[in-house]
Amino acid sequence: LSGLDPAQPYFQGTPTEVRLDKSDADFVDVIHTDSAPTIPNLGFGMSPAIGHLDFYPNGGVEMPGCEKNPVSQIVDIDGIWEGTRDFVACNHLRSYKYYSDSIIYPDGFLGYSCASYDLFQSGDCFPCPEEGCPNMGHYADKFKDKVKNDFVKLYLNTAEARDFPLWRYKVTVTLSGKKKVKGYVNVALYGSDGNTKQYQITKGTLKPDNTYTAYIDAEINVGEVTKVKFLWNNNWINPTLPKLGAATITVEAGENR
């Protein structure tokens, strides 16, 4: 059974006979996309973990792309009917959109087991453990024989619009150069299955020999990394013409470590 943002009003906190529960099937996976309290936030979905695997994309409360202004939502690209529904219940309805995207991307929507979304964001629960990460949505049941704990909370990020899946990488850059300079460092990944746009790894004071780490959620699974593009800029013309390079760049894919 797959729960697509199961309803909160009249159901949250009720006995298991009343609401969706892991005892309802051999395997119950749940996608939580609108788990803010109903009062005052009008969250339609329930927040507690109730299945064998509970996925909280983007933290499970506010979905990216749902904070668009009402007019642009009502005249949505998918038509006025879809746009109006999104305006009323955008976060709630993301659950089925993620699910339908998950059918097309068997390798997408990896959920990282973590104590909280904040810890996931800061990279604490990266990469996937030895047995791998479950996929949110249609292919969640591939993981059914690997569930060890009572409740498993899984976190991941998605894009603002379809296609929704993102693939998580850890990028570590050690700089080389003569002296420190202000600016930012961007990195793009190239691989056997495609390349990403540029992602900012750090900004502010850039010191040679220092190491900077960022977790990026890329719009594509690049496959085997073949090259990395490094770019730095200080956004203004510096008469001393400072030079910075990358002594090393390490890329770790969340999925296969």
UniProtKB/TrEMBL annotation:
GO CC term (a single one): neuron projection
Pfam families: Lipase, PLAT
Membrane topology note: Peripheral membrane protein
Superkingdom per UniProt: Eukaryota
Chief subcellular location: other
PROSITE patterns noted in UniProt: PLAT
The protein's name in its UniProt record: Pancreatic lipase-related protein 2
